[in-house]
Amino acid sequence: MALRNALMAALLDGEASGYDLAKGFDASVANFWMATPQQLYRELERMEAEGLVAARVVEQERRPNKRLFSLTDAGLAAVHAYTAELPSRPSTIRDELMVKVRSVDAGDAAAVRAAVAERMEWARAKLARYERLRTRLLDGRTEEQHLAEAERIGPYLTLLRGMAFEQENIRWGETALRVLDRRSAVRR
Q1: What pLDDT does 29 receive?
Q2: CA neighbours within 13 Å on the CB side: how many for 136?
Q3: Bridge partners of 57?
Q4: pLDDT at site 33
Q5: CA geometry: angle at 140 spanning 163 and 156, to 5°?
Q6: CATH 1.10.10.10: which residues of the chain?
Q7: Nearest-angstrom CA–CA distance, 126 and 184
Q8: Which residues pair with 56 in a beta bridge?
Q9: What is the structure's pLDDT at 1?
Q10: Who's near 75: CB < 8 A, 6+ residues apart?
Q11: DSSP alpha helix (H) spans, the chain
């Protein structure tokens, strides 16, 4: 999947500046796509050159002018074409922590334990952000009401996937810490 597809998906929510996209990217699509602000800006420039997005300049007092991007008809057609394609095979997980855990028997168990605990804290923090986003998306409605009435359901469905991922990271971490603690107690 190209970054442009993730950007076009984000722009389906409406016009946004590069800054807003970078800030919102972390909250809206970081559960399935990561990119630096520099990568976002470069891709927006390419997309504008290809006619997938249009930009307009908004003059601001006491701040630099900002450019707001929106999807063009060609961008909407590209989203439609992208969603019609068969998805590629599922992504592969490349996680350095998993290599460390796999090596724990010959490595520094205390350091690995600390890394697992830190990962759990990251997962809890991310889950808390996702919960706040969920509350904003539901806007006082039940999940069933939102899914039946909302103009767009894609953001909510991907949010649910991100929440499930972080919940599983926490569950796995709890199991890993229990096992590491038991093993450590036996070896003392």
Answers
A1: 64
A2: 10
A3: 67
A4: 72
A5: 30
A6: 3-84
A7: 29
A8: 68
A9: 54
A10: 8, 11, 47, 51, 52, 53
A11: 3-11, 18-28, 37-49, 73-84, 96-102, 109-138, 143-149, 154-187
* Per-residue DSSP letter, 53: E
Q: How far apart are CA 39 and CA 22, in angstroms?
A: 9
14-51 CB burial, b ≥16 within 10 A, e <16: eebbbebbbebbebbbbbebebeeeebeebbeebbeee
Instruction: Write out the H or E segment, with its range, that includes residue 54.
Output: strand 53-58
Helix 18-28 with 109-138: angle, nearest 10 deg: 110
Taking the model in full, what pTM does it have?
0.76
CA nearest to 155, candidates 126, 134, 178: 134
Residue 172 has a pLDDT of: 97
| pLDDT given at position 28 | 61
Compute the chain's Rg from CA coordinates: 21
Give the model's pLDDT for residue 27. Answer: 60
Segments in the chain below pLDDT 50: none
Rounded Cα distance between 30 and 162, Å, is 8
Query: Model confidence over 169-186: pLDDT tens digits?
Result: 999 999 999 999 998 887
The CATH architecture assigned to 3-84 reads Orthogonal Bundle (1.10)
Distance of CA 74 to the CA centre of its chain: 25
pLDDT at residue 35, rounded to an integer: 81
